[in-house]
Amino acid sequence: MTRVWNTPIFGIALVYFIVDGVFSYVTRPITVWIARQRLFERVRLWITSLRPYPSLALFAVPVIILEPAKPLSGYLIGTGHFFAGAVIFITAEVLKLTVVERLFQLNKDKLLSIPAFAWGYRYWRTMMEIVESLEVWKAARRVAARVGNVWRAVFHRSRGARSEPRAHGTRIVRSSLADRYQGRAS
Questions:
Q1: Interatomic CA distance for residues 120 and 123, integer angstroms
Q2: Cα of 168 vs its chain's centroid, Å
């Protein structure tokens, strides 16, 4: 009987870890940005001054508050409110992972000194290594990297085009061919 439950539970856990893995790559730049802000310096000092178990309690708060949004969003999507469900899911997941990742960065050593947390973290890392070793994950990461590179190139080109002087109501589009001829003429 336990074998019957193992496969679906493993499947659900795998989907959960994949979703968390995808969103964690989205939230890393936000976490890095928050870490650089002077505005959060006092909060950072307070958080790092906590002992291990208060750090664990603080670490659990965003999970406890935002994790119930997943079943709520599933319910909304299931009842035909796809947009509302998707917005709730994405917002809650991004907020949760951003806050949890930052709290973990600040208190990693203290949290890992708690045996149960260390066991859970090792389990989570093992699951993430399994997910990250899958060919599907690697292919998705390659596609995401390509999309990111294209997006950055388009963004930088559009910023370059906007910074050039232009006549009122017209749009100047620079082409590499025109740039080459201008470079030779001067």
A1: 5
A2: 40
Question: In which residue are the tokens 């947009």 written?
Answer: 83
Number of neighbours of residue 62 by Cβ within 10 angstroms: 18
In angstroms, the CA 47 to CA 30 distance is 19
C-alpha to C-alpha distance for 144 and 149, rounded to whole angstroms: 9
Could you tell me which of 140, 148, 108, 106 has the C-alpha nearest to residue 125? 108
Return contacts of 117-122, CB within 8 angstroms, 24+ apart: 117/56
Token pair of 147, please?
């999309």
Residue 65's nearest CA partner among 105, 39, 103 is: 103
Write out pLDDT tens, residues 82-128: 999 989 988 888 888 888 888 998 999 999 999 999 999 999 889 88
Q: With the CA atoms of 46, 47, 50 and 54 taken in that order, what torsion angle do they form, in degrees rounded to the nearest 10?
A: 130
